[in-house]
Design a protein that fits this description.
- With 263 residues, the chain is α/β, with parallel strands linked by helices.
- It has a single domain, classed as Divalent-metal-dependent TIM barrel enzymes (TIM Barrel, Alpha-Beta Barrel).
- It is globular.
- 48% of the residues are buried.
Length: 263
Amino acid sequence: MTTIQHGIIAPAAQAAAVRATGADYLEATIVGSLLEEGTGGTWHRAAEVPEFAPAPSFAILFPATVRISDPSVPLAETEEHLRTALAALAPHARPEATIVLGSGAARRLPEGVDRAAGEERLAATVRLARDLAAEHGLEVLLEPLHRGETDLVTTIAEAVAFLDAHDLAEVRVVADLFHVMLEEEPFAVVREHAGRVGHAHVADTDRRPPGQGDWPLAGFLTALRDGGYGGHVSIECFIWQDIAAEGRDALAVLRAADPATAA
């Protein structure tokens, strides 16, 4: 049985600050953290990564320069990036850790590309990522992202339909309150598909830390838990003034709102 934990998404360089908040884990970002950009838009394993406890999840798998929905890009280029990313993160991962495939700019449909062809290439990318991650004992998840970030797979319901349509029903999805709110996806739909959810992200209004806005955090988490989701929850914010200072309060708000851990 999984012990429910709550973490914070941040670059590995902020591992000490996240640890100081009392978070159960750091969900380390991959691009720009575990991977560094080299010449020609390629990425390589970072030369120095601060130590952090093995993590149950990782985020930001692809940079915008790796076009994962563009049929004109050789799939071998995507495979090379994935192999590099997985080799970089695997030493920091717990067994069966999840890797979030969000990366909205990377998967945005290129101008002039037929939508069906773009979806087929995205599906091929998801399939490739699934298989390569499995070689490390890890799991790739598909994250729906709001339409301001991408034009392919923008809701939980759409993610489930996309995966089913491309024979990828075993690939689970990420439920992120930020994207749910911006897409106005009903919590009833979140509850309906919670059994397909493999990880969850939360934030407050405008992606501020929980407790600094008025988004219905408890309602979102209740829908997930009632629907059968039994996994971890990570805070993903754009606006941290100071993670070490704000994170402890944000985690307290999250844990109090989560039916799985609320007193």
